């Protein structure tokens, strides 16, 4: 089979053996659609030291169950499934605490320690909890964002920042996970959602998808514009969706008394935490990997028409065009791209 790997900072499509069942808890999935995550770019840049050289990239995707181990429950060969970005055994101390991102025999292993989803086939360990049947009413190409982006926006952004119906929300960063936070924040019906970014095209997209206000952070008075929206009180829920020092600094300056900052960005460099300004403001700061335990509920929201999954994947390429797809995603603002999908051109 064909798989996309990273060697010495370069990606290439290589031939790999088709995966087989190795444990009774495994499934083998024939891939229909996958997508590129910002984390994949971090691997290529060498920012993530855990990623093993030569591993097939990717932890997002939709496919069809090709084979099942003897103990897998709730699935059948031929089922269309969403692949969770986090593999969960369900029984270790971390899974029992509801944080399968740190599963002792799983977590983020696909595209990190184990060959991932950017291949024609993928072996998924602990398939009972790591695969989710996809309703026939949901388009498979759009459903790839349910593997990671939407659960991340919801769990690490919306829930961690305590978005609620009477509150105000600011999301700093209008990339894929920032937009995912916007889409899932709307499920909570907050009084105000504000999106912040340097890219006017992305801000326009955010307005189309339900942001009440958008502010270009490159404006000299951007912080004043933002605080003016709250009568200088700050925001109840502040979501950082970039992963650089400047945006985390801005989030600290925007949080209201009693508010919460939720960090979603992947930080590769040191940031400053201004406790001298924050210690008496009764705020919380939360950061985490996505656990992806919200996938079933998000699937239900999509099925009921309450959550839009048609907006995040803006560019589609065939798997043979993978290098072009990565180039597009790597220069997302130039190409006006959010998520970039890869299609395998096979029948469902």
From TrEMBL:
SMART domains according to UniProt: PKS_ER (SM00829)
Co-factor(s): Zn(2+)
Domain Enoyl reductase (ER): 9-338
Domain of life: Eukaryota
One Gene Ontology term of the molecular function aspect: oxidoreductase activity
Record's keyword annotation contains ATP-binding: no
Keywords: Metal-binding, Oxidoreductase, Zinc
Keyword Zinc applies: yes
Gene3D superfamilies, sorted: Medium-chain alcohol dehydrogenases, catalytic domain, NAD(P)-binding Rossmann-like Domain
Pfam families: ADH_N, ADH_zinc_N
InterPro entries: ADH-like_C (IPR013149), ADH-like_N (IPR013154), ADH_Zn_CS (IPR002328), ER (IPR020843), GroES-like_sf (IPR011032), NAD(P)-bd_dom_sf (IPR036291)
Family membership: Belongs to the zinc-containing alcohol dehydrogenase family.
Protein name as catalogued: Alcohol dehydrogenase superfamily, zinc-type
Organism of derivation: Penicillium roqueforti (strain FM164)
């Amino acid at each position: 089979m064909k798989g996309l790997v990273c060697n010495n900072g370069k990606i290439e499509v290589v031939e790999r053996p088709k995966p087989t069942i190795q444990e009774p808890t495994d499934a083998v999935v024939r891939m229909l659609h996958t997508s590129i995550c910002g984390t994949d770019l971090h691997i290529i840049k060498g920012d993530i030291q855990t990623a093993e050289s030569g591993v097939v990239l990717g932890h997002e995707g939709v496919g069809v169950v090709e084979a099942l181990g003897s103990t897998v429950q709730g699935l059948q060969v031929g089922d269309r499934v969403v692949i969770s970005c986090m593999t969960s055994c369900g029984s270790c101390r971390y899974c029992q605490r509801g944080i399968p991102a740190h599963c002792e025999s799983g977590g983020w292993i696909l595209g990190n320690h184990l060959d991932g989803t950017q291949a024609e086939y993928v072996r998924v360990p602990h398939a009972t909890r790591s695969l989710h049947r996809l309703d026939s009413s949901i388009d498979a190409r759009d459903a790839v964002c349910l593997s990671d982006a939407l659960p991340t926006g919801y769990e690490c952004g919306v829930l961690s920042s305590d978005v609620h119906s009477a509150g105000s929300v600011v999301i700093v960063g209008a990339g894929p996970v920032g937009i995912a936070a916007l889409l899932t924040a709307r499920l909570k019906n907050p009084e105000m959602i504000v999106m912040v970014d340097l890219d006017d095209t992305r801000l326009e997209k955010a307005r189309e998808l339900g942001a009440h206000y958008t502010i270009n952070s490159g404006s000299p008075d951007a912080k004043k514009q933002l605080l003016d929206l709250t009568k200088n009180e700050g925001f109840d829920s502040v979501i950082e969706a970039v992963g650089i020092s400047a945006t985390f600094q801005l989030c600290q300056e925007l949080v209201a008394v009693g508010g919460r900052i939720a960090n979603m960005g992947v930080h590769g460099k040191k940031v400053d935490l201004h406790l001298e300004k924050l210690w008496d403001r009764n705020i919380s700061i939360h950061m985490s990997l996505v656990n992806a335990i919200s996938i079933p509920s998000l699937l239900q929201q999509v099925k009921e028409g309450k959550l839009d999954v048609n907006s995040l994947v803006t560019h589609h390429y065939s798997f043979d065009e993978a290098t072009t797809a990565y180039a597009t995603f790597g220069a997302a603002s130039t190409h006006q791209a959010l998520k970039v999908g890869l299609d395998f051109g096979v029948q469902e």
